[in-house]
From TrEMBL:
<feature type="transmembrane region" description="Helical">
    <location>
        <begin position="328"/>
        <end position="348"/>
    </location>
</feature>
<dbReference type="GO" id="GO:0009986">
    <property type="term" value="C:cell surface"/>
</dbReference>
<dbReference type="GO" id="GO:0005929">
    <property type="term" value="C:cilium"/>
</dbReference>
<dbReference type="Pfam" id="PF05478">
    <property type="entry name" value="Prominin"/>
</dbReference>
<protein>
    <submittedName>
        <fullName>PRM1A protein</fullName>
    </submittedName>
</protein>
<feature type="transmembrane region" description="Helical">
    <location>
        <begin position="23"/>
        <end position="56"/>
    </location>
</feature>
<keyword id="KW-0325">Glycoprotein</keyword>
<keyword id="KW-1133">Transmembrane helix</keyword>
<keyword id="KW-0812">Transmembrane</keyword>
<dbReference type="GO" id="GO:0071914">
    <property type="term" value="C:prominosome"/>
</dbReference>
<dbReference type="GO" id="GO:0031528">
    <property type="term" value="C:microvillus membrane"/>
</dbReference>
<dbReference type="InterPro" id="IPR008795">
    <property type="entry name" value="Prominin"/>
</dbReference>
<dbReference type="GO" id="GO:0015485">
    <property type="term" value="F:cholesterol binding"/>
</dbReference>
<comment type="similarity">
    <text>Belongs to the prominin family.</text>
</comment>
<dbReference type="GO" id="GO:0016324">
    <property type="term" value="C:apical plasma membrane"/>
</dbReference>
<keyword id="KW-0472">Membrane</keyword>
């Protein structure tokens, strides 16, 4: 536009205007030379991006890709049921993908229960039956049990017959008497009577001694009265128990004899039953552990949601970023190629008004 002047004859146009027209024609020439490469690039990217989008992305979203992979004739030799040792065809890619999206364990996803039977593998009932049979056949022999020897039994019987309850009456009478041999209060009274008969110096000393005796008597009564009452109570208790000593000794010996007979008769069965009960308790622990292990193996171990998430991420990266960008690329180049023909026609027409002509147009 800078070199174009409307009033100038076509044969007298400037070099700037002529250069613009030459550039127009050069663009047309380059378009004819290299346009086939642009068309080929559009074709290749269209075939690549379009087919990838339709075959992978579109079929992934509609789950048709997994149905295609589930076709046993698609890939010869690829059969999940045969690879997992399952007789019936029950495992396929689409079902595995749905289970993994729900965060199921591989045991459920691959249907491994049809290949490996945990109930038979971890069944301990057969062992419990063998243990019970072995305990029933077991013969327990114990050495003789002696709770009391005959000598000890005779000593107890003789002691119960010959021992008489001790006479506590004398001890009880002594408890009710004064703690001292002579009454301290009587001695204090005698000292006071002597003090009245004697002189002043001796009188004060005797009165002081009498007061000291009364004080000692009061302290003795205070210190020993509770202890003496407790001792008296214990004496009465011992006296009441000693009367029944012979009967209790006889009852004790009879109980010991019954216990001895019971142990001789039932000890072997008791040991066998208690041991069997302990073994059954241990088997219950094992059953609980096996139940927990089966539950963990079939429900918690090796959850496959990360696999489904990884596949979804790969699909998102491939389709949303790579394939969509590739399709946008060929789509843009396709429109450029489409507008190339009208641009060539327009360029040829425009070049006429810019280039310097050798012969002026009669019009």
């Amino acid at each position: 536009p800078l070199g174009l002047k409307e009033n100038v004859l076509p044969t007298q146009r400037s070099s700037l205007s002529n250069a613009g027209g030459n550039f127009f024609m050069a663009g047309v020439g380059f378009s004819f030379i290299f346009s086939w490469l642009l068309m080929l690039l559009v074709l290749i990217t269209f075939l690549l991006g379009g087919n990838i989008y339709m075959v992978i992305c579109k079929s992934w979203q509609s789950q048709q890709l997994f149905q295609l992979l589930d076709d046993p004739g698609l890939i010869p030799g690829l059969n999940l049921s045969d690879l997992l040792g399952q007789e019936a065809s029950s495992t396929n890619f689409s079902e595995m993908y749905r289970d993994c999206q729900q965060d199921a364990a591989l045991w459920q996803t691959l249907h491994l229960d049809k290949s490996v039977s945990l109930d038979e593998l971890l069944n301990i009932s057969q062992y419990s039956e063998e243990i019970s049979t072995a305990f029933e056949k077991m013969n327990i022999t114990l050495s003789p049990i002696s709770l009391l020897s005959q000598t000890q039994r005779d000593l107890l019987q003789n002691a119960s017959r010959e021992a008489l309850p001790p006479n506590f009456n004398l001890s009880l009478d002594q408890l009710h008497q004064n703690l001292t041999k002579e009454s301290l209060l009587d001695s204090a009274a005698e000292l006071e009577q002597l003090a009245e008969k004697e002189g002043t110096d001796i009188k004060e000393s005797l009165q002081a001694d009498a007061s000291e005796l009364k004080k000692v008597n009061e302290e003795l009564q205070t210190s020993f009265s509770g202890t003496l009452k407790h001792l008296e109570k214990d004496i009465y208790s011992v006296q009441s128990v000693a009367v029944h000593l012979e009967v209790q000794t006889k009852d004790t010996l009879d109980t010991i004899s019954e216990t001895h007979e019971f142990l001789d008769r039932e000890m072997a069965n008791i040991i066998k039953n208690e041991t069997l009960a302990f073994v059954e308790l241990l088997l219950d622990f094992f059953k609980t552990y096996i139940s927990w292990a089966k539950s963990g193996l079939t429900r918690d171990v090796a959850r496959c949601k990360p696999i489904a998430q990884t596949l979804d991420n790969v699909e998102a990266i491939t389709c949303d970023y790579i394939v969509d960008s590739l399709n946008a690329f060929w789509f843009s180049l396709g429109w450029c190629t489409f507008f190339l023909l009208p641009s060539i026609i327009l360029t040829v027409r425009l070049a006429k008004f810019y280039r310097r002509m050798h012969i002026a147009d009669v019009y």
